[in-house]
Request: fold
Amino acid sequence: MKNFHGIPLLFLGLFFACNPDSNGPDPTPPVSEEPTSPTVEEPIGFTPCENGFAGDYPCLGYDLYAHIGLSVFDSKEANDNWGWTDALTGKEYVMVGLDNGTAFVDISTPEKPINLGKLPTATDPSIWRDIKVYRDHAYIVSEAPGHGMQVFDLTRLRDVTEQGQTFTADGHNTSFGSAHNIAINEESGFAYVVGSQLYQAGPIFFDLSDPKNPVKVGGYDGGRYSHDAQVIMYQGPDTDHVGKEIYMGSHSDGGNYFDLVILDVTDKEAPKLIKKISYSNPAYAHQNWISEDHRYIFLGDEVDEINFGGRTRTLVYDVSNLDEPSLHHAYRGTTNAIDHNGYYHEGHYYLANYTGGLRVIDVENIENSEMEEVGFFDTYPKNNNVEFAGVWSIYPYFESGLIAINDINTGFYLVKKSEAN
Reply:
């Protein structure tokens, strides 16, 4: 199904803007080109969370270490982000997804992050850009027409001496046109491009054995449009699948199809469907992430808060039996804000909650259906309304404990749990 960027598309009674080169819808519309707060011309440094605020930002238990506004990146909107730690130097870096490219930020001195430069978009600007990392290389896809997959050798950042450089890609695969998202299984060395023009917008399999030259080796077309995915080498309680490469994807067709799809992709030439999971009050199956013990999958629907009301909903599935998963818990957040990207890490679920900012939820006792919000940092202090503004994505996996936040309207933030907590 073709969509039209900048032209309203009626979707479940709502208007969303989508990209002309996309095979599947994304309900996230372009936001206003005007930021919701003054553009930050210079980075803001450390600001502790005191009495519920870090400067102007509502917070609980998380200090602000830095903020870089969009004007510093010469961009109008931010989107996805991801992180990389240089094993040689120990330095931590953030890849900041932007409407017109990808910026690379050195956060080794977190109070004074360095904007090293930007890799421009391969074709046109787009509000949709996604980034993952494998073997010291960044892989970037976008819904910009004909964008393909950019490959950038992150070790080049070691030698950057001047800020604000313009980078070129080290590789570029254009075999699929545009795509909405990319997942990488670092254990197997395969990338999974989703939401493209191939395989009915299902996952495309790429071998990354030669990191700068991804090779397309297959795909899966039985689940229709895939919006986001995670792929793992399964080591969970289901002994029938231990050691297999398992794909878990959020699939939606914009109309009547909303599923969490689980595949065995061990054999790239013959992927096997394990299970399609449907759920109540679906609107747009957006993103999913599995717990580190491979027992629970956390699923977010991006449009249910709009269509059905109520506080932010996260569905938790018990997948200890991959062939027969069961709904284990339906969590309701503390605001009505729309959920976007969520990631599990060491007993906590870190959620990019649009106007609600970053929300940190304790899920240590999820076995007993317990989830409790224990911290937050709200980069969109204006409100917690049900709208597509504020935090798009977060990255919570740095060993330092730093969390990178990408706010659509105001750019890059770096936060960390307060020492008192």
Q: What stands out?
A: The first strand starts at residue 9 and ends at 11.
